[in-house]
Design a protein that fits this description.
CATH topology of the largest domain: Arc Repressor Mutant, subunit A
Number of strands: 9
Shape: globular
CATH class of the largest domain: Mainly Alpha
Largest sheet: 3 strands, antiparallel
Number of domains: 2
Structural class: alpha+beta
Number of helices: 6
Strand content: 15-25%
Radius of gyration: 18 Å
Length: about 190
């Protein structure tokens, strides 16, 4: 391995590490590093960088900008001098997303061990505010693959919307809804 390749792999590992650290504190545990997010999940970037430094996790503004720009899932949004996680919060925030009309079908990636519970209860937000859905099967498969061999479920979002279920779309294209009852899901047959 040449030095340039090794340096690039190291940079990529650092980018992932910073992204995960930011996700943890902007989505789930801001108080752990002394942050207070506003009601919409925003915090001043200078306040964030100071809190990170005070807890021994030094990140420069340039590195933060790189992590935000390089994140393939666009997990973070920057607006002026503020930053927030785009979605996936387990803490109480109001992202202020307007209702949106979904496409006829959306998709959810999971793994086989979750199918019995999904068959009974549908999709529930678990420790998040909303159920996360994807506009395409490929994205849903990647999401499911994080926990094992993926199973992609089709969600009849058009019927849900007609029946009064509300959808939102986050800044990074993730579709959000409170829950998906079993009748709107296409599940593989149980074996």
């Amino acid at each position: 391995m040449n030095a340039r390749h090794s340096e690039g792999a190291q940079d990529e590992r650092r980018t992932v590490k910073v992204s995960k650290y930011l996700s943890k504190h902007l989505r789930h545990q801001p108080e752990r590093i002394g942050l207070s997010l506003d009601e919409a999940g925003w915090v001043e970037i200078d306040t964030l960088l100071a809190a990170l430094a005070a807890h021994g996790f030094l990140v420069t503004r340039e590195e933060l900008d790189h992590v935000v720009a390089a994140n393939d899932k666009q997990r973070f949004a920057v607006e002026g001098t503020r930053i927030r996680a785009s979605q996936g919060h387990s803490i109480d925030v109001d992202l202020g997303l307007p209702p949106a009309t979904p496409p006829p079908y959306l998709y959810h990636g999971t793994v086989a061990r979750n199918l019995d519970a999904i068959r009974n209860d549908g999709l529930r937000p678990m420790n998040r505010h909303d159920v996360h859905l994807s506009a395409d099967r490929e994205t849903a498969a990647r999401v499911g693959a994080r926990r094992g061999r993926p199973v992609v479920l089709s969600v009849d979002a058009g019927a849900m919307h007609r029946d009064g279920h509300v959808f939102h779309i986050s800044a990074n294209g993730v579709w959000l809804t409170q829950a998906v009852p079993p009748r709107y899901l296409r599940l593989p047959d149980p074996h």
